[in-house]
Amino acid sequence: MAGHGIPRVSAPGTGTGLSSEQELRRIQNYKDLVDDVNTEMLEKNFTKDIFNMTSKLLEMNPEYYTVWNYRRLLLRSFFTQTTFSAKTDNPNDLSDIAIIQQYIIDDLAFLMPILRKFPKCYWIWNYRIWLLDEASRLLPSATAYDIWQKELALVGKMLSLDSRNFHGWGYRRKVVGELETLSVKTNSPTASMTEREFDYTTKMIESNLSNFSAWHRRSKLIPRLLNERNANQSEKKAFLDKELELIQRALWADPDSKDQSLWFYHQYLISNFEPSSNVDTIVPELSTDDKLEYVKAQIEDLREMLDGAETCKWIYQRLIDLASTGRRLDGQWPVESSLIETWLDKVTELDPPRKGRWDDLRLEFTR
User: How far apart are CA 51 and CA 66, in angstroms?
Assistant: First the structure.
């Protein structure tokens, strides 16, 4: 399976280059190892030897999710055997904390070569998050913070290799959220990472305009960003203008692009012009006149964009959306009726699977 042009590595045993005899021997060794691990776990023999056996098994087949659960049980057993209180200031407990920390660091390191070989295996990433959560649960906040901070560097490298991997973006959100939580616990003066993450989306968008995950992440950060800045109406309006300029430049770079990520972000921005506002609106204080001015300006810009991009359905769709928004604002269509009819005819031609939707909009237009 491939994702965003990055191929997923085949399962073990595919294209190994081994002879039939060698392959059969390898398969038998694998089956014997599986039987041994299952038997020992059934008897609750939670030992280092069994832990090492799970390592060998997972290196051979990381998709065997039951073995990841075995590994969790084994580590929990080891953690319990080290009699310590995780959040204590007692210096006598430091050795126990260090033991737990080393278990976690060593296991994170064990995962790295497997991740490089199988970067899209869910079970590895799920287990890795579990390990990091254990660090937060069992270790002092400052120690756990350092471990999570290194994880942020790791996910940054991962996204530099596959910038549109939405699993990677989801993983990054988890890491950033935990770092913010731990920052609060350590009384850090800069607990919020919103500004830093917003700048990161800008960097990723500039390197690849088609990065849907970066645009989506940006839209989710904006309300929090403006709130943390204590932005007033004028500052919010300036921010909206800057975002509209950014997306317009991106759209103009390839007006005939079929890239939905740009149009979805554009849709998010123009939702600010709807008559009723919601909590995620960038400038909830916009007057009706201001919204109408924005709608008309956007229509004019998109009409210019049509020149040379007459086969891009997204432009017609957005023009129709804006025209409908303008009518909801003051009861008047913001452009002449012949133009709207032309847009509806064209989008129906370019997007026949949604003909029913365009017919419904045509009825709205005639009312």
Answer: 13
